[in-house]
Amino acid sequence: MTATLNACPAPAKLNLFLHVTGRRPDGYHLLQSAFQLIDRADSLDFAVRDDDQIVRANEVPGVPAESDLVVRAARLLREAAGKADLGASITVNKVLPMGGGLGGGSSDAATTLMALNHLWQTGFSRRKLMEIGLKLGADVPFFLFGRNAFAEGVGEALSPLETADYWYVVIEPGVSVPTPIIFSSPQLTRDTKAVRITDFPDATKQIASSFGKNDLEMVATRHFPEIAEAIQWLSRFGNARMTGSGACVFCAFEHEQQADEALKQLPSRWIGWKAKAMQEHPLAHLLQS
């Protein structure tokens, strides 16, 4: 009987704030951020194959299988295990927009590592999976961390973070933002003063509502005025800001009804939705400490 795991969630994340505090000699940017998991997610299906093929079983528009992070993640896991005969078929059901700053591709890769580590019985610890994930992108270790986090370094130095059980309204402004454009911009400030997680007297509410800013937002809104328009519109309901390097923008609400009322007024030119804050990754039970 073929070993399978179906409907494995790959949840989105929001950057409640994102500060660029410097730059390393190798060009990587030093960041500080608060990562918040939300219950909007892609969904992936996995089946172990009896040959050595790693196959993405469906088409994902704009993403060739060979360059897809889920295929690359599976191959890296197999390589780390030293078992060339491991195979898998992976179906990716996309919900999260690409180029949205929600971490969709990174989350898909992390879910792949978690699921195949379980199905292939490779037995790697959470820390080892995070090491493998970092080779795929700076956001991947967060999703493998398994819970909300305060992030430093290039995004890989993570500390557990308690966050408020807010509802979030997220707007997709209709543009896809290539991250390199933002980080390579001469307009990007790279000298925001570093903070400490202990600087937050009431981290659960302050981070989600009013703390800090997104240093990438100023650059992204200059390149993509659609983002600026979405932020301006959503700001009528609270402290709206961009997540990641864009393009999605969000605002926190204490009550679901408030989020629903905001969405009723959303202009038809945008896609918008609500999501609930999560404290833990839904597949965290698969992770070994």
TrEMBL record:
Role of this protein: Catalyzes the phosphorylation of the position 2 hydroxy group of 4-diphosphocytidyl-2C-methyl-D-erythritol.
GO term, biological process aspect, one: terpenoid biosynthetic process
Pathways per UniProt: Isoprenoid biosynthesis; isopentenyl diphosphate biosynthesis via DXP pathway; isopentenyl diphosphate from 1-deoxy-D-xylulose 5-phosphate: step 3/6
One function term, GO molecular function aspect: ATP binding
Disulfide bond found in the keyword field: no
Gene3D superfamilies tied to this protein: 3.30.230.10, GHMP kinase, C-terminal domain
Cited InterPro entries: GHMP_kinase_C_dom, GHMP_kinase_C_sf, GHMP_kinase_N_dom, IspE, Ribosomal_Su5_D2-typ_SF, Ribsml_uS5_D2-typ_fold_subgr
Reaction it catalyzes: 4-CDP-2-C-methyl-D-erythritol + ATP = 4-CDP-2-C-methyl-D-erythritol 2-phosphate + ADP + H(+)
Active site positions, chain numbering: K13, D139
Superkingdom of the source species: Bacteria
Protein name (database record): 4-diphosphocytidyl-2-C-methyl-D-erythritol kinase
EC number of this enzyme: 2.7.1.148
Pfam families membership: GHMP_kinases_C (PF08544), GHMP_kinases_N (PF00288)
Segments crossing the lipid bilayer: none
